[in-house]
Amino acid sequence: MVKTTAEHLIPQEVRHIHMIAICGTGMGALASMLKTQGYVVTGSDQHVYPPMSDFLKSQGIALCQGYSADNIPPAADLVIVGNAISRDNPEATAVRAMGLPCCSMPQAINHFAAAGKKQIVVTGTHGKTTTSSFIAWMLDCARLDPSFLIGGILSNFNSNYRVGKGGWIVLEGDEYDTAYFDKGPKFLHYTPAAAVLTSVEFDHADIFDDLAHVKAAFARFLKGLRADSLLMAFDQDANVANLIELTRGRVSGYGASPDSDWHLGRVSLSPPETHFEVRRRGALWGTFRTQMMGRHNLFNLLAGIAIGEELGLERETIGHALESFKGVRRRQEIRGVKNDVIVIDDFAHHPSAVRETVRAVKSFYKDRRVAAIFEPRTNSSRRNIFQNDYVLSFDDADYICIRQAPMLEKIPPDQRFSSRQLVTDLEKRGKNAYFHEDTDQLIDFILGQARPGDVLLIMSNGGFDNIHARLLERL
Length: 475
What we know:
The protein is an alpha/beta fold. It is about 30% helix and about 25% strand. It is built from 13 helices and 23 strands. Strands 8-7-9-6-12-13-14-15-16-17 form a ten-stranded mixed β-sheet, with helices on both faces. A six-stranded mixed β-sheet has the order 18-19-23-20-21-22, with helices on both faces. It is globular, with a radius of gyration of 22 Å. It starts with 15 loop residues before the first strand and ends with a helix. Mean pLDDT is about 90; it is low at about 1-5.
C-alpha cells in the first residue's frame, strides 16, 4: 500500500468534502457514494456538462464551472484532488495556501468506501470494467449486498457505484497515475483479499514510457499483495506469466489451456446467447449461458466464476448471475435498431481491444455486414506508438471508417497518429477502409453506405459527437 504523507492525511472528523475535477467517471461515482453516506459534497470541474453534471445535481451536489480559488468552501474539512489536476491548478494552489487537508481519489475510496470491508480488486490493461461488474452482480445475486465502485455504468444497477451493507466491496483497480502529488498507480492504494489480473500490455503512452514501465507498475501491485490473498490471473498472457511469480499470495490461473486451473471448454453461439463450458483442472465444472458476446468476454466471466467459487457461492447462483448479467454501458451496448440496422456502442480504443471487439461482434452477427467505425481519441491512440498495430485490428470487419483523431494539436507533431495513413495501410491489405475528416462527413457516408441487416460498431472512449443518436435519428 502507498504511504500517505502528513500533508495528505484524512482528518478523523469530516463533514464537508470538496472535490476538484468532480465530473470524471470515478470522481463522480465517489461523490455520489459520499453523499449517500451523509457527507456534504461540493465540487468543481473544467467541463461541467450532462450527463454527469445533471446526475450530480440530482444528488444535491453543488457544482462550480471552471477552477478558481473562490470555489473552495471555507467550511470544507477535506479536499479530494482528481488526477487531471496539476500542481499549479488555482484550486490546488488555494488548498495548500489554506492548509486544508487533501487526498487523492483512491485514498478517499480506501478510507470512506472500503474501510472494514474485504476488497476484490480487478486489474489489467483490458477487461477490468466488465469483470468487476460481473463479480459485483454475482455477489448481489448471492444476496451478499456488496458495495462497488467501477469505471462504467452497470446495466443491472443503472449505476457505477453502490453502498451495500455486506462485507465485500468490488473495485476496479486502475494503473493510471493517482494525483499530481502521487504519480504511482491508483491500484497501489488498495489491499485486496482477492485480486484479478486480466492482461498486461503497453497502454497510456502519456504516462508510461514502454511495456517495461507498465510491467513495473503491475509488479509493484503484485509484490504488495498480502500472503493470505488470492490472485486470479489470466495465464495465457506471457506478460502476466512473467509477473505472477512476484506475489506472495495464492495464485490460481484461468484461460484456454487444459493445464489452467480454470479454462473454457466448448463454446457455441445461439444469438442472443452464448453457451459455454467451464472446466476446472480438466474436469467439467459446469455449462452456462450468457448474453455477452466474444471470447474475450467469456474470459472476463470465467475470472468472475472462479472468484465466485473461491468465495463459496453456489453453482446455481453463479449460473443465474451469468444468465441475468446485462453487461456494462458502452461495452458492446446496442443503442438502437432502425430499419434493421443495429447500432452498437463500445469503449474499445487499444489495438487489442479493437481487434477482439470487432471479432466478437462479427462472430455473433456472422450473417450481417459489420462496419467498424473508429475514433482514435485516447492519449495513446492519438500517438503513433500504435500506428502499425491498428492495421491488424480490423480484419473481421466488412468495411471500416476511421475518423481523423481529434485534438491532435495537443500531441507533438512527430508523435501524432495518422488516421489517413491507417486507411492507406488497411487498403493495402485489401480492406474496404475510408478516411473521414470529421463526424459529420462520416455520418453522411454511413447513411449512403448502410443497408438493412448491417451492424454499425462504433468504437471510441469519448462521446464521438453523439454519433449514435444522430445515426439512429437519420437512418
